[in-house]
Structures are given as C-alpha cells and as structure tokens.
Amino acid sequence: IILITCLLGFVGVAGVHRFLLNHIGMGILYLFTAGLCFIGTIVDLLNYKELALEYNSQQISEILVMLNMAR
User: Fold this and answer.
1) What is the pLDDT of residues 22-42, one digit of tens each?
2) Per-domain residue ranges for the chain?
3) CA separation (Å) from 71 to 17, 57, 66, 68?
4) What DSSP element (H or E) covers 21?
5) What SS3 state is found at 27?
6) To the nearest 5 percent, what fractions of the chain are helix, strand and coil?
C-alpha cells in the first residue's frame, strides 16, 4: 500500500503515503510542495521497503504493549 500511495505523488496527490505512516508533518510538506518538487517522492520510492518495515515494527511494538497490559 505504501508503494501505491507513493506513486500517487506523480499524479498530483503527493504525501498520502506519509499520512499513512503517521508522518503528518512530512505529509503536509509533501502535499504543499508537490513532494518537494518530486525529489522527495522519488527518494521515498527508492526507500519504500524501509519505510514500511519501520511502520510495521512500530505497529508490532504497540500491539505487544497492549497485549501485555491486558494480562
């Protein structure tokens, strides 16, 4: 999903992937600067796997914390 939303940056909706990753500030910056003149969007396309891994790891950590609190 990160790759698909990152590709939307080339058709005029830059920054959607940053909102999905909870990087709200970067999402707003990308939205108003057309993905930092597409340079930021290209960099994110090259690094989308790292962005997704970071987000997934964060989600796993939050779930584990919630599970430990439930016990």
Assistant:
1) 999 999 999 999 888 889 999
2) 2-70
3) 34, 22, 9, 5
4) none
5) helix
6) 85, 0, 15
